[in-house]
Amino acid sequence: MRNVYAKCCILMCCFGQFSIGQTFAKPSADFSVPTTKPTDINLVDGLRYSRTGECRQQFKEAVKNAKLFCAEYERDHPGERKIAIVSDIDETLLDNREALTNKTDIDLNDWRNWIDEARAPTLKVTAHFLKWARKKGYAIFLVTGRHEHGRPATVLNLVKDGVAYDGLLMRENDDYGPAEIGKVKLRKSIEDMGFKIVVNIGDQFSDLVGGYALDCEKVPNRMYFIP
Ligand SMILES: [Mg+2]
Predict the structure, then answer these.
(1) How far is the CA of 144 from the centre of ligand 1 (A)?
(2) What pLDDT sits at residue 178?
(3) If you measure from the C-alpha of residue 203 to the centroid of ligand 1, how many angstroms do you get, rounded to a whole number?
(4) What single-letter DSSP state applies at residue 121?
(5) What radius of gyration do the chain's Cα atoms show?
(6) How far apart are the CA of 97 and the centre of ligand 1, in A?
(7) Is there a domain that residue 16 lies in?
(8) 212 φ/ψ sector (left φ>0, alpha ψ -120 to 50, else beta)
(9) How many domains, in total, are found in the chain?
């Protein structure tokens, strides 16, 4: 009997620890934006790295953690309705490697032309995650550093790729400020609507800092750095 009681206590402790919630959480405060470009980030080596098993594994791991956090959040907040996922677009949801191949640096005109072509494929792991989350009732907000003038092409690209989303939040055309500031305002506007951002996922640290998300997931990108 004593053994049964002890086992129950252990189970209750374990359950209690879980029910407190956010076991898997990586809050925004855990991240910071480096003040200078990290030395392991460059286009040529980063492209090569993006095609390695290690990179794919890191990507999958981040999305797996996002799903685990969602499951945990739902268990701790049953019936909550205004819940949201925020995802960055470039190198998180859309794969721009075709436009970056055989280059040593990013040319802004080439980049704009590539966006206008609206034919970037999705990164499947993230696309599947967003589809999974939306089915479960999460609103999907895409928060991107792309400027408003790229909205028609971005929408077209997402439609062609079959990405369903509920909001597309972009930079104003005259905004060339740091992403780490602009994206915070955009996430705040989502929470001001009454949504709780459960997961925020991005490839840049500037996607994740500044709050307005319970769990932040970083997918790998060693090709370029956006502060
Ligand atoms: Mg990105």
Answers:
(1) 7
(2) 94
(3) 5
(4) P
(5) 19
(6) 12
(7) no
(8) left
(9) 1
CA–centroid distance, 15 to ligand 1, in Å, is 37
Block residue for tokens 């990507």: 59
| Alpha-carbon 114 to chain mean position | 22
Q: Report residues of the chain scoring pLDDT below 70.
A: 1-23
Distance 205 CA to ligand 1 centre (A): 9
pLDDT score of 137: 97
| Residue 21 belongs to some domain of the structure | no
Residue 113 resides in a domain? yes
Say if residues 66 and 120 touch (Cβ distance below 8 Å).
no
- Whole-number Å distance, alpha carbon 6 to ligand 1 midpoint, is 49
Cα of 92 to ligand 1 centre, how many Å? Answer: 5
- Separation in Å, CA 66 to CA 29, 32, 147, 172: 17, 19, 27, 29
> Could you give the angle at the alpha carbon of 25 between the alpha carbons of 169 and 63, nearest 5°?
60
Tell me, yes or no, if the pTM score tops 0.85. yes
What residues form DSSP beta bridges with 122? 94
Does residue 48 form part of some domain? yes
Q: How far is the CA of 88 from the centre of ligand 1 (A)?
A: 5
Q: 115 CA distance to ligand 1 centroid (A)?
A: 13
Range of the domain at 85: 26-218
Look up the CATH number of the domain holding residue 168: 3.40.50.1000
CA of 192 to the centre of ligand 1 (A): 24
Residue 171 bridge partners (DSSP): 147
Task: Tell me, in angstroms, the distance from the centre of ligand 1 to residue 108's CA.
Answer: 15
